[in-house]
Design goal:
Blueprint (H helix, E strand, L loop, with lengths): L19 E4 L4 E4 L6 E5 L10 H19 L4 E7 L4 H9 L4 H18 L7 E4 L4 H13 L3 E3 L7 E3 L15 H10 L16 E5 L15 E3 L1 H13 L3 E7 L3 H16 L5 E7 L2 E3 L2 E2 L10 H6 L4 H8 L8 E3 L1 H18 L8 H11 L5 H16 L8 H13 L4
Parallel strand pairs: 3-4, 3-10, 4-5, 10-11, 12-14
Antiparallel strand pairs: 1-2, 6-7, 7-8, 8-9, 12-13
Helix pairs in contact: 4-6, 6-7, 9-10, 10-12, 11-12, 11-13
Length: about 400
């Protein structure tokens, strides 16, 4: 599957810093220590409602990780998936009386356009679930052969992962069993399914049903893959047995990231699957979580069609810390638009206050668990001093423009 076009990232003077990130498994901020190239897998969209502001905020957060690693001198191997076959996609296609393949292709194309507009650095590999089915089947066969998976006895052809085969199950999310069961039922799981060994056992392979798409599963039988094994397979095949960051929104903490880690660790015998499990906060609107079910999604493409500068949108989504659940408001966007205008006015001056300390401050803040609030404050202060008449460094405007671009992804 094609990714989107990238852009040249300026090289900044001096040395970047080690990147510290909050790890959900250890529940604290810890240094990331890539061994050679930094590896990151970010769970992508199910393509039927692209691209809402929650998607955008999540992708911006991991774009900042990518940029900070590159500034520190690390090559980055970044993979993102597209869940282009899943129940929600089929349900939306049926509701709208549309071919699910056409729906997925259209929404994926729109997502790419939005990512380009927001200046998200593209992944090295952008991979669909459908194109990965042969590899997924092989992994399901391995789990069955190793006794970590089982077939239901009801003739459905469904295959489940046995969480008893993962003795550390729960370490990534740090949730108790009651909360796991609650979230499992809310987020695509089937705790009430008869015949399972444990209500929390996740689906690996859904046997073929009439009226649903299905693929040749070899010894597994015809059907289609479960959600969690998709991401585990793609990450293992393209990034190796242990990755530096597994990322996504905090709604993926459980069950998705817990289960995909359990699958990967059982398949490879390596622990942990990811050295950092990193989760971005949710975006709300009018006091409610922005969600498909509530019908209150705000779309990047709609804002772009209304001539909102994508850089203002990006700034607005970075105005609070990436891990915080936060609200989208018209005022938030207005402040970002004003900030962008002030920054552009300031860097358009031929001379400004010293730029090097600002670069170091922005580096310091971004590498401390993506503190965009502090980084933005440093650039705000420089812009205000410039517009107030401080004219001491002729190279500062160019350096500030490069700093905003390289570390924050903001084109001035």
């Amino acid at each position: 599957m094609e990714s989107w076009a990238g852009h040249r990232v300026p090289r900044l003077p001096g040395a970047g810093r080690p990147v510290r990130l909050y790890d959900s498994a250890r529940q604290g901020v810890h240094p990331s220590r890539p061994r050679g190239a930094a590896t990151m897998y970010v769970c992508g969209i199910t393509p039927y409602d692209a691209t809402h502001l929650g998607h955008a905020a999540t992708m911006i957060a991991f774009d900042l990780v990518n940029r900070a690693w590159r500034d520190a001198g690390h090559p980055v191997r970044y993979v993102q998936n597209v869940t282009d076959i899943d129940d929600p996609l089929l349900e939306r296609a049926a509701r709208d009386r549309e071919d699910w393949v056409v729906l997925a292709m259209r929404e994926t194309a729109l997502f790419r356009e939005d990512m380009e507009a927001l200046r998200i650095l593209p992944p090295e590999r952008y991979v669909g679930a459908v194109e990965s089915i042969p590899a997924i089947v092989a992994r399901v066969e391995d789990l069955l052969a190793g006794g970590a998976a089982y077939r239901l006895a009801d003739g459905s052809g469904d295959v489940y992962f046995d969480i008893a085969a993962s003795p550390r199950f729960g370490y990534e999310s740090n949730l108790d069993r009651a909360r796991m069961l609650e979230l499992f039922g809310e987020r695509g799981g089937d705790p009430e399914r008869a015949g399972k060994r444990d209500p929390l056992d996740p689906l690996l392979w859904r046997g073929a049903r009439g009226g649903e798409p299905a693929w040749d599963g070899g010894q597994v039988g015809p059907g289609r893959p479960g959600w969690h094994i998709e991401c585990a397979t793609i990450a293992l095949d393209l990034l190796g047995t242990t990755i530096d960051v597994q990322g996504g929104g905090n709604d993926l903490l459980f069950p998705h990231h817990e289960c995909s880690a359990a699958h990967a660790e059982r398949l490879t015998g390596e622990y942990p699957f990811a050295r950092h499990y990193v989760h971005a906060g949710m975006i709300g609107l009018a006091g409610e979580k922005m969600s498909k079910s509530l019908g209150n999604l705000v779309f990047v493409s709609r804002l772009r069609a209304d001539h909102v500068d994508p850089m203002a949108l990006r700034l607005a989504l970075m105005a609070d810390h990436y891990r915080a659940d936060r609200q989208w408001t018209d005022d938030l966007l207005k402040v970002a638009q004003q900030r962008l205008a002030r920054w552009r006015e300031a860097v358009a001056t031929p001379v400004g206050p010293a730029g090097a300390p600002v670069l170091e401050r922005v580096r310091d803040r971004i590498t401390d668990d993506l503190d965009t609030v502090g980084a933005i404050a440093a650039l705000d202060a420089w812009a205000e001093a410039t517009l107030a008449g401080d004219r001491s460094d002729p190279g500062a405007p160019t350096l500030i423009r490069s700093t905003a671009d390289a570390l924050l992804g903001i084109a001035l």
